[in-house]
Specification:
The chain is mainly β. The protein is built from one helix and 17 strands. Pathway: Glycan biosynthesis; alginate biosynthesis.
Length: 218
């Protein structure tokens, strides 16, 4: 298991990489996705590989370019349909119109291309921040406020996700397993924005990854 100081340094670097200074679609009314398309889903790809770029991905007419290691792409409009992802598991994605979908790749410790598909909760409140916790581990993990120990998400096993709306604030969070902090990360929660915290299995323990959502219009 990695030491907490090492995690603080690692996650701090990741935060610098994945929270951009601008978003691809200018937010209106303080929301990262103020208007959901009625005839398309919004889909993003997150690459959690520690070293490798993700391969390009195509869902019908929409191409998702390769993503560098440990980065999250913006949501892109994808027409309704049934799409099969590459890889030995041949995962199927069936995005519904006006829905949000996150496709995660690069998180599996074993060789081979593996994906997991999450149905995300839209964020429609410009006055509050949205926090999403993605647990890619089979361990029961919870997310708590570091200084108070207050639980934001009680422990649950993955792969699974949970979502909550919170006041906008800068906060230090801990990903805990059996009450022990495995990862410590700082996040800046902003009104109208959606921020994701990913718990990623990585031998011999876990790593954390944080990304702020954005939407691109092609």
């Amino acid at each position: 298991m990695y030491s907490l100081p090492g995690f603080r340094t690692m996650v701090g670097v990741l935060l610098c990489l994945v929270i951009p200074g601008r978003v691809d679609l200018a937010a209106r009314e303080g929301l990262y996705a103020p208007h959901r398309p009625g005839d398309a889903a919004l889909v993003r790809v997150v690459n959690l590989s520690p070293r490798k770029d993700s391969p390009p991905l195509r869902l019908g007419p929409v191409r998702f370019p390769p993503k560098p290691a440990m980065t999250a792409g913006p949501y892109r409009p994808v027409p309704r349909g049934v799409y099969r992802l590459p890889g030995p598991e041949r995962t199927v994605v069936s995005p519904e119109p006006a829905s949000f979908v996150t496709i995660v790749t690069g998180f599996a410790p074993e060789p081979g291309e593996k994906h997991h598909v999450f149905q995300d909760t839209p964020h429609d409140d410009p006055a509050r921040a949205q926090l999403v916790f993605y647990n890619l581990s089979e361990k029961e993990l919870g997310l708590v406020v570091a200084d108070s120990g207050k639980a934001i998400f009680p422990p649950f096993s993955g792969p699974a996700s949970a979502t909550v709306a919170l006041n906008a604030v800068a906060v230090e969070l801990e990903i805990r397993h059996n009450g022990v902090a495995m990862v410590v990360t700082e996040v800046l929660l902003s009104r109208g924005d959606s921020t994701a915290v990913f718990a990623v299995p990585r031998h011999p323990g876990l790593v954390g990854f944080t990304a702020r959502a954005s939407v691109v219009q092609d």
